[in-house]
Design goal:
The chain has 408 residues and is an alpha+beta fold. It has two domains: 2-57 and 265-403, no CATH class; 64-260, no CATH class. Helix content is 52%, strand content 20%. It has helices at residues 2-13, 19-58, 81-85, 121-125, 150-156, 201-204, 212-219, 238-249, 258-261, 263-301, 303-311, 316-352, 374-397, 399-403, and strands spanning 64-68, 74-75, 90-105, 108-117, 131-134, 139-140, 143-148, 167-172, 186-193, 195-197, 207-211, 224-225, 227-232, 253-257. The strands form three sheets. It has a six-stranded mixed β-barrel with strand order 3-4-11-7-9-8. A two-stranded antiparallel ribbon has the order 2-12. A hairpin with a 2-residue loop joins strand 6 (139-140) and strand 7 (143-148). The longest helix has 40 residues, at 19-58. The two termini are 32 Å apart.
């Protein structure tokens, strides 16, 4: 292996008789380097946006969510809460009760999902870190307050500083109603907003956070909830704790982690990521055709060397290996250069954020988010190696047809 590698290394850096071969070889290296750099940078940007989006969603969703397998609500009296609270790794929990309702502010109205939570909800999810206005206050003595999403807040044209006009909440009465008047079919309360949260447009347009005690009063519930959310200690294995919780609760309940709670979002981001990866890989394949051209011209130029090697006893497999290694060295040189340069650009963006987002004031970040994963660098390296191998095999298969032509 050392001898073919030595000859291939000499061919890579030695001056060729025809300068066009040097030029094509350099173009091959640069083309592979640019393609590799683009792959590293684009994947890092996708990682940055994915990390940013998931951090926003994670502020709304808890580590573990427990819902009933059949039906909508379940009673806390029959739920094995004490076993879960004493489970090692469970740091905190919160009770949640959700229902659709109509919210009205002056002459505007909006259909929203009311999420009733207790005081520990902020410690389980971190929703209070996503506030863009006001404070996260749901109860104060006997008074109830709300924290709507930004979309709901804008649609209602509400004002957290308006202490004269509360937001009216209407929810359907449970069971059958006997009266014909609409007021008899709904229960209502008037609540003032204390803050506004912003997570993502879909959630901001749909959710309003309200006190759990108020939701139970509106829905005529005592201890019922729609879900239990848990915060898991980061030092513990979340999947293992999820399995234990499922065993404790049994088949009557569904236990989901954050990935399963946002399954559609994860699948969309993964599909977009792989789509852009294959597009850039196709561009890299086109750039790798320069390797084929460079090796084909090198074989023609080195016909005398091939004849000398054959007269010294070198067989066809050895000579094939020399030119195959030559193509692999070209792809490796371009790939390593592109990975290093792409990693440097990504690191500079992470550190200094010199490429900014143009729409100032619209995004929560001023610069493009970037996050480099070593698995991406390894994936790009393997991709470049495989493409270089295939690109080198094409001229190597025809090496003897070119080499056996009489030299000029």
């Amino acid at each position: 292996m050392r001898f073919p590698l030595y000859i291939a290394w000499r061919y890579l850096f030695a001056k060729k008789t025809h300068t066009a071969i040097n030029t094509i070889t350099m173009v091959s290296v640069v083309g592979v380097a640019v393609g590799s750099m683009a792959l590293v940078v684009v994947l890092s940007v996708f990682n940055g946006f994915e990390k940013l989006i998931l951090s926003m969603f994670n502020a709304f969703h808890a580590d573990i969510e427990i819902t009933v397998a059949e039906g909508k609500t379940f009673s806390m009296e029959t739920f094995p809460l004490e076993e879960l609270v004493n489970l090692p790794g469970v740091a905190n929990y919160s009770e949640v009760l959700e229902e659709m309702g109509m919210v009205v502010y002056q002459d505007r109205q909006h259909l929203a999902r009311l999420r009733g939570v207790d005081e520990t909800y902020r410690f389980v999810t971190g929703i209070d870190t996503m506030l863009i206005k006001g404070e996260f206050i749901l109860t104060e003595n006997d008074r109830n307050f709300m924290v709507p999403g930004q979309g709901v807040y804008i649609v209602l044209n509400a004002n957290i500083n308006d202490y004269l006009n509360p937001i009216d909440i209407y929810v359907p009465r449970r069971g059958r109603t006997t009266g014909l008047h609409p007021s008899q079919a709904f229960r209502s309360l008037s609540v003032f907003p204390t803050g506004v949260f912003a997570v993502q447009t879909e959630y901001d347009m749909e959710y309003i956070i309200v006190p759990l005690r108020m939701m139970r009063r509106l829905l005529d519930y005592d201890t019922e909830v729609t879900s239990i959310v848990l915060r898991i200690d980061p030092q513990h294995n979340h999947l293992r704790i999820q399995r234990i919780i499922q065993e404790i609760t049994g088949p009557e309940y569904v236990v989901r982690n954050r990935l399963q709670q946002q399954d559609f979002l994860y699948r969309v981001m993964r599909s977009e990521r792989w789509a852009i990866f294959f597009i850039l890989t196709f561009i890299l394949i086109i750039a790798a055709f320069n390797i084929t051209g460079s090796l084909s011209m090198l074989v023609i130029e080195k016909r005398r060397d091939i004849a000398v090697l054959r007269s010294m006893g070198a067989g066809k497999p050895l000579i094939n290996k020399i030119f195959l290694l030559e193509g692999i060295l070209i792809s490796i040189a371009g790939g390593l250069g592109g990975i290093l340069f792409g990693g440097l650009i990504s690191w500079l963006q992470m550190r200094y954020g010199f490429i900014s987002l143009q729409a100032e004031g619209v995004f929560i970040m001023d610069a493009y988010p970037v996050f480099v994963k070593w698995t991406d660098l390894l994936l790009v390296k393997l991709t470049v190696f495989c493409i270089g191998m295939v690109a080198a095999l094409i001229p190597v298969k025809n090496i003897w047809r070119k080499a056996e032509r009489p030299p000029h």
